[in-house]
Amino acid sequence: MNRFRKALVRKPGMNFQAGLTSSQLGVPDYALTLRQHHDYCSALVKCGLDLFMLDPNEQYPDSPFVEDTCVLTARSAIITRPGHISRRGEEEEIAAFFRDHRMLRRITEPGTIDGGDVLQVNNRFFIGLSGRSNKEGIRQMEQILKEEGYTADVVELKNYLHLKAAVNYLGDETLIMHEHFEAGTPFSHYNIIRVSDRESYAANCLRINDTILVPEGFPETLEKIKKLNIPVLELQVSEFRKMDGGLTCLSLRF
Ligand code: CIR
Hints:
About 20% of the residues lie in helices and about 25% in strands. Helix 1 links the parallel strand 1 and strand 2 (about 50-55). It has helices at about 30-45, 90-100, 135-145, 220-225, 240; strands at about 5-10, 50-55, 70, 75-80, 105, 120, 125-130, 150-155, 165-170, 175-180, 190-195, 205-210, 210-215, 230-235, 250-254. The site of citrulline has 17 residues, from loops.
């Protein structure tokens, strides 16, 4: 499992509620959004990360979900071309930031990729073919990853916005996965923690170094994760959930 030392986040803007959503959970409360973001940032610091925070960008309401704009490898920052037109352009400030930290690579037109579709498991990447990430984007991403010595498997998605809405890596060869996710052979070598339908949002957990961040309010999943004997931090992310986001997409770790 990668060890991380730093993270990039972006503070939500006042127009956060104007972003894309399919959740039907209502409009996020801005004050609470900021509090939850602040607590998320504090959790990253508790995990030992130095934090870099970009100012809100009122032009892009979904821009706090920084993970969609970039995929980080040991060598490179692969700047994506976001799949939804309203998010295109968000990646430029992210590219400017990573210029000082990594070699920049780019996904180019007509390719599209959202970072939420790219799951790293050690030297292996799984890439979701989704409404946001198309075949050409995946072809370009695979090529870059292979040049850098990684392997890549494509996972076709039907019912999820992004791959990491359904499955995430918790380290120690263990994946957390929604029970109805058709795992198929690429995932068959791993231990799998299944997340029930009732708690499906809880598949979006985030391992950072020696801690697992878990969304608050999913007791069944929490019990299963606790059995791993890795320290757990529960975080309230209700306002980000309303906008289809969660723990993984709110930061880029490196
Ligand atoms: C969107 O639809 O693009 C945002 N409202 C949510 C993006 C969440 N990203 C992620 O889970 N990787």
